Request: fold
Amino acid sequence: MNEIAIQARDVYKVFHKQRGHLPWERSDGHSGRQQAVALDRVSFEVRVAEIFGVLGPNGSGKSTLVRVIATLLLPDGGTVTVFGHDVVREAIAVQRLINRVSVEASFFKKLSPMENLIYGARLYGLSAAESRTRIIEILTRLGVERWAIDQPVERMSRGMQQKVAIARALLTRPALLLLDEPTTGLDPRSKREVHTLVRELRDLNSTTILLTTHDMLEAESLCERIAIMDAGRIVALDTPEALRGTVALHQGHPPTLEDVFLELTGKLLTADGK
Amino acid sequence: MISSAAQQLRASYAFVERNTNLIKRYWSWEVVWLSYSIANSLSVSYIGLGLERIGGLQVDGRRLVLYLVVGTLVWHYLSMIFYWLTDIIGLERWEGTIEYTLMAPIRRLTHMAGQTIFAVVYSLLFTGVILAVSVMLFEIDLASANLAGAALVMLSGSLSFIGVGIVGSTLPLLFPERGSQMTHVIIAALLLVSGVYYPVEVLPGILQRLAIVSPATYVLRGVRAALLDGASLPTLWPEIWPALLMGLVAIPAGLHAFGLAERYAKRAGKLARSG
Reply:
């Protein structure tokens, strides 16, 4: 059995940005395009059934990395394999094994969670009959009340919508779950429910989980290993304990992951510094 | 192999079911659109009855009405298919679900097939309602019409419009902000050159040449011949085969273009507008 769930080798991604909308707005006389390196030779491996964290400020490349693994972005260089399948050449094979929860809970807002999730289930080859029971089971487990399951998603709070997004990902029983800031906007109780569910998924189904987050407590409590990203590069990768061990005592107390990040990059974890 | 086919079939049905659910939830908008379409179709068709009074000409008003009714109905049907197909991306961009649909393990052919089945069935129902109202108001006599022939011409024209629609659906992929609006240019050009409300012979030479490559030209001519003159199948064949041929070229070409556009969007990061 292949023990490696994700293998990334020298992954490189650059975005070109147009400087002006019209030709005469590009005053420098050059091509009018700026380059932004989103992923700069990123290499790492994630083991099967591991909860792997990716920590970094806004714009560090976390979501770009998740999109490359999810087959939504093509890398400009390097390779990524998921359970041995190349994300570019064997996209459908990869898609069968993965699902993703992003920071925005994206749904057909007029449709109910049930209708949205059945749509999602059918795309993954599941029948409506087998999905219905499981949808109710997962949503109830996540704290979504039964009556809300048949109401339009637009009537739900942001936190509830995010729970439906998590349910959509769990419904297809992915071997690799990509969680891109999944608990943003959730209250502490809901966050805790999600954390418990993530651990259960790993423990009961051996699901591999890649989690990107700004929340250091979340990363520390869930992840076995954490990669710290900055400006498209992985600047450190180790267990939370080992990462904390890389810096000295901070103002007399043991260093936190935030201290580690500050030490390595000179930046705060969140863009606004909160 | 069979399970893979079953999976693709289920995935295809997902789009039919999703669109049906969306229609149900947006029912008030659909009623408004249907009312507008009926009013629009009737307004154009009444020109047929009014022409005698406007110009003082001796014209067969009833025949003219049927000529215009056919134009409005065929155009509604074909343009609805086109818009439902171009909406394959536009709708998902609007809702923000595009990444979830495009990362699902389905072939693009499956995706298109589901959307196409829904587009054809819904467009038929929608156009059927307009036809029913038109028949009632204008007391249209279709006793000598070749209804089966007209249906066959419509069907062959549907194929080419499916292809044109798939090509149009690449625009919202390539241009996230304005791609959906750009699709109107395609449909406006087809409306101008295809002889929807007038024979293409009245157009200037360059537009007549463009009419040759518009599938709608053949569909409109064929349906009119079948309904107005009761033309037989051999008489309709010169209109059917070009529409069929265009469909056979346009569908694979559309799928290929969509594949290239999807690849470009994934390379340039155009699927998500932020993040």
Summary: Chain B has a mean pLDDT of 92.
